[in-house]
Specification:
By secondary structure, this protein is an alpha+beta fold. It has helices at 3-19, 90-105, 157-165, and strands at residues 25-29, 34-38, 43-51, 54-63, 72-79, 108-112, 119-126, 132-140, 143-151, 167-168.
């Protein structure tokens, strides 16, 4: 096969992959203490990030749809460092996290979580790259649990389904 044929075959494969329908994948992790239904199979990641609480090592599960580099569905879990940096109560820690979101994104819409979800917030912001970021932060047992979806349009059905399925296990 000549090089033109290889490029045509590669382009066709990318189109098929991009058009393939994602299948929701229920995911439950007892060690990290969460459950969610991802739009596709999540991968494991681990990274550190400087936060108002100090450096946090995040354990992450994320799904990035093929070809759609502007979409991301992610759950991160990190332990709050010892001490009171960022707040001495879960309520104070939520306010610290919200202030950090405001610093990072400028404007952040915030809503209370439904009763029974836990101590935390639901938020929406526009990222610097122009994508819509929607997330939930829940603090339980000294851990930050955040689910975030980054999508191209507000109120994306996949993002809504993902965030609605997110729960922190008792």
């Amino acid at each position: 096969m000549n090089s033109k044929g290889v490029w045509i075959l590669a382009a066709a494969a990318l189109v098929v992959m991009g058009c393939a329908r994602d299948k929701p994948v229920p995911y439950r992790d007892e060690k990290l203490g969460f459950a969610a239904v991802f739009p596709g199979p999540p991968l494991n990641y681990r990274f550190s990030e400087q936060t108002p609480f100090g450096a946090i090592e995040w354990f992450s599960r994320a799904y990035h749809p093929a070809i759609q580099l502007d979409q991301n569905f992610q759950v991160d879990v990190g332990n709050l460092p010892p001490g009171t940096q960022g707040g001495s109560t879960p309520e104070e820690a939520v306010e610290t996290y919200y202030a950090w979101l405001l610093k990072r994104f400028g404007k952040v819409d915030r809503a209370r979580l439904p009763v029974g979800k836990g101590m935390g917030i639901r938020y929406q912001a526009m990222s610097p790259s122009g994508s819509h970021l929607e997330g939930i932060l829940i603090i339980r047992r000294g851990r930050l649990h955040r689910a975030e979806a980054s999508v191209t349009k507000a109120k994306d059905p996949k993002a809504q389904a993902f965030l609605e399925s997110f729960e922190v296990l008792p």
